[in-house]
Amino acid sequence: MFRPILALQTSQALSPQNEWGGPSPSSPFSLLGGENATSRGRFECVMKAEKPTWVVMSSASGIASPANFLPWQIQISVRLKPKGVHGASTGELESVKKHIKGWDTEAGVVTLGGCPQDPRHFEYPTRVLPPETSQQHVFDAVMPELLDKFVNGYDVNFMAFGQTGSGKTHTMFGPPGSMARVKVAALEPEHGVFLRAGLHALQLLKAREQEGLAKFHLCGSMVELHFEMPQDLLNNKKQCNIDDDGRLQGAVILPITIPEDVVTLASAVESRTTDVTLMNDTSSRSQCLTVLTLTQLDLSTDSVTTTHFNFFDLMGSERSKGANSAHDERVNNKETLSGAEAIMSNLSLHHMRICVQEVHEKNTRRGSQKNLQRAQSAKGLQGGSSEGAWCSYRAMRLTKVMGGSFTGASLTAMMLTLSQEQRNGGEVYETLCYGEDMQKLRTQVTRQPSPKYAKLLEKATKELEASKAALAHLQRTGGGGGKSGLAGPSGGYQVIRQAQIERWSQ
Question: How far apart are CA 341 and CA 320, in angstroms?
Fold first, then answer.
């Protein structure tokens, strides 16, 4: 039986201190490949054969070649945070029952003790990255295949999820203030996967352009959802909108033509809303969405393809009571800003899980009904139809913008970040259960349509004129135009129309 393997490039040696700020062992990747692997400049992480996930990476191109993307099973990676780094001190806390007993990087298994089923083996992760794993190796493990698909006509989503203080923002961007220390010529070990992904995507696209294969236009936006309100981090947190298709409207669109543009986009995360809690010195108080939008003109077919790569750095789940609370229990968390932010975050993440479960139930019912209809058809019987469960994506903006990650034609990958501290065992258990729900989802990955340039230009001209006319009408009538939704004094429709004008003008 063929055994898929994941090969990671070790492009730089680790310093005596890793990017988390803690000491690195003398052989940081002995768990993943042994001393011989690191001395060869690459190592391999063998995964279980029953996981239909990743295949061998090409040593020539550094890009993974998938054997089968239809349907795409959402890839779940797990990263363990080293003990005793970057966290607010809370003194002696009551030990929780659940705790991490161990992990197997070769098999992709995390084992918890203290569960109703003890030990509880979570066997679904595509890969488990141990505490010694560097930022570069996280990128090498997760990003090359996703970037390859992104530049070849597919929509991609990558999200970081976990308890507060477990390393989500560290994995995505790096430690606080790290963007101020960026040198494009030589990235620091601390810099996260987004900056590396943006630079690598730009490199791939420039290579395609130099080969005469395509012309490209790459741009990016970054917003935070603070109390469910989208705020543009590239424009002093000006309010923007999310349309019914889950796309940003009214946010700054930053053209990316040189590596410094990627740095500018990544640096916007430094203005994200943060605060100190009992669990984290610098806790993100909002959901962060970074979007790379790529439009390519294929010179051989004269067709245009537009794809999106969405990076979700989700605010961590937080407890408000008990020994593991992130907030002062003596104060009603509903009466403090930080407490209210935690309530909104937990509500958003809870609703996201509801949507995930609804999608899975709906797909299960559809599959059962199709099997029933096939059986009835074979027996000459008539079978009815049913739509299955309704999914409430639009109830909250977070799930509205993330809807395409659960269904549709995109590739989705998720990074679960886990704290090893025993007092966090309950949160670790919930995080792994959350990932288990996500792993059940499937998306039907389809290449984005590629209309001819002449037809797209004709459509853009018509849409541009229509949007200008609609904007002029809205301005004359005070912003409403008699429509529902975002109409009214807020001028939301005007923002959307202005964004459409900018989009079609490009």
Answer: 11
CA distance 338 to 88: 15
d(CA 435, CA 122): 10
Q: What is the spatial distance between Cα 141 and Cα 75, in angstroms, rounded to a whole number?
A: 11
- The set of residues, in sequence order, having a beta carbon less than 8 Å from that of 112 and lying 6+ positions away, is 98, 99, 100, 101, 119, 120, 122, 425, 428, 429, 432
Per DSSP, 182 falls in state -
- Is residue 278 within 8 Å of 328, Cβ to Cβ? yes
125: amino acid identity, one letter: P
Q: What is the DSSP string of 289-301?
A: EEEEEEEEEETTT
State the amino acid at position 352 in one-letter form: M
CA torsion through residues 91, 94, 96, 97, sign:
positive
Phi/psi of residue 218, nearest 5 degrees: -110, 135
**274 Rama class: left (phi>0) / alpha (psi -120 to 50) / beta:** beta
**pLDDT < 50 positions in the chain:** 1-17, 22-70, 87-95, 376, 378-389, 481-490
Using CA atoms, how far apart are residues 300 and 213, in angstroms rounded to an integer? 7
The per-residue pLDDT for range 384-425, each reduced to its tens digit, is 333 434 567 778 888 888 887 777 788 999 999 999 988 888
* DSSP reduced 3-state for 171: helix
